[in-house]
Amino acid sequence: MNLRNLLGLLMVVAASWTLAEPLGSPIQPVVSVGRIERLDNFPSRFVEARPIDVWLPSDYSPLKRYAVLYMQDGQGLFDASQTWNKQAWNIHLALSKLMQSGKVQDTIVVGIPNGGKHRYSEYYPDKYLALAPQDVRMDYVRRAQLDQPLADAYLRFLVEELKPVIDRRYATRPEPAGTFVMGSSMGGMISIYALCEYPQVFGGAAGLSTHWVGRPSRWGAPERLQNASLPLAAFNYLQGHLPRANTRRLYMDHGTTGLDAIYRIHQAVVDEIGREMGYDSAHWQSRIFEGPGHSEADWAARVEIPLAFLLGKP
């Protein structure tokens, strides 16, 4: 089925998983493998200050060089005892296992907490909104973003402020082949946007359960939300801004239950865009997992797959 036919079938229902947390836990996460160094109250000219948690593998050495994986929604990555739903990605366990088996390059993880009440402000791409009808755009900015669109500012924080500090402080590989970005739901959307906006910085991006519909669940039950304007704006942006085919790696997936059940048609459109651009399977991977829903436990169960795809040794 081609892109035009898929777009013609698109009827959007929308909701969204949200994190109603402050900007990071006041307590540093505890991990059983490797160690975490916290950069407390990391300042920014672009977004609100927040703690940054940097996970280092057990054998971290300044004599080696490490890829860096920047991850969104950093509150939920490492320590389930500190999360709102008592679930975590356990990204340190998955990555340690893959490194020990030689399946991925040596890597450190930078966990960036979301903006709390400004999560939609930071994670919904400004340039998607610019392509939406004016009434939809204004309504979204007012209600979802509290009149503060911050996605481009958030990316400037990530690229211009955070990354230089990480590269100075740790033994990183600062080039695109050593720099990756990942998230889930709205965090997946901003991660893919980061790759599009800064292909000279990032070598790949992963979006698990990417929330293409873009709308918060508090706006109403999914069956009452039929406005396709937001996902169509995202698709139009991607057609003109995805990195040139096979120069970067993109991974996307979704489950089939709960909120993830509404993503199939949206992801099919995005995949068609990639095919039309000429992406091959070595640089574009899109997967459907029968059964899983929309939670850290679901993402933890399959996170080794995107990690191996993004961070696999050249």
Question: What keywords describe this structure?
Answer:
314 residues; alpha/beta; 8 strands; 15% strand; globular
Describe this structure in words.
This protein is of the alpha/beta class. The protein has one domain (3-311): Rossmann fold, CATH 3.40.50. It has helices at residues 3-9, 91-100, 119-123, 126-129, 134-143, 151-169, 186-197, 229-241, 264-277, 296-302, 304-311; strands at 35-42, 50-56, 67-71, 107-111, 179-184, 204-208, 249-254, 284-288. An eight-stranded mixed β-sheet has the order 1-2-4-3-5-6-7-8, with helices on both faces. Helix 8 (229-241) links the parallel strand 6 and strand 7. Helix 1 packs antiparallel against helix 9 and helix 8 runs parallel beside helix 9. The longest helix is centred in the middle third of the chain and has 19 residues, at 151-169. The chain starts with a helix and ends with a helix. The relative contact order is 0.18.
